């Protein structure tokens, strides 16, 4: 089922996700709905907070070498904790909760993440490049942050101006 994605400036996007303690069929169905939503909206990641559920869970599914978003490559990340972050990478990011806006964001180039899967099993994931960026981007949602908070003062002023202009057009 495709869920509604909250968009900026919805205040729920700035809530913090609560730790997941129950790993049951209901959680699995919710993760499946998140996947359907992400694919329907042409995303590569989606956090539970973006669909109005304040829990520490997100999914990431990058496009592979064949230009296919293969569900076998899906990461379901629950209760993530970054063990290590190093290096630096600048990547142009967008967000399903900030539609139509893209900007360069500086993040760690390499990460080591500990998390639980949908069954509560503890796992670790070492990532670099776009996967490292996506993991950090989605984890920011769990802490109540959007990528536009990381773009610098002048770019943020430009974003706010464009956002207000586009909001007036929509009315």
Jot down its keywords:
Peptide Deformylase, globular, two-stranded antiparallel ribbon, 7 strands, five-stranded antiparallel sheet, 171 residues, alpha+beta
Number of domains: 1
What is the CATH class name? Alpha Beta
Distance N terminus to C terminus?
29 Å
Number of E-type strands: 7
Strand content: 25-35%
What is the CA-atom radius of gyration, in angstroms?
Answer: 16 Å
Q: Provide the structure class.
A: alpha+beta
- CATH superfamily heading: Peptide deformylase
CATH architecture: Alpha-Beta Complex
CATH topology: Peptide Deformylase
Low-confidence stretches: none
For the biggest β-sheet, the strand order reads: 1-2-3-6-7
The average pLDDT value, as a whole number, equals 95
Tally the helices: what do you get? 3
Helix content: 25-40%
SSE run: HEEEEEEEHH
What does the largest sheet look like? 5 strands, antiparallel
General form: globular
Keywords: Hydrolase, Iron, Metal-binding, Protein biosynthesis
Binding site for Fe cation: 95, 137, 141
Enzyme class: hydrolase
GO biological process, one term: translation
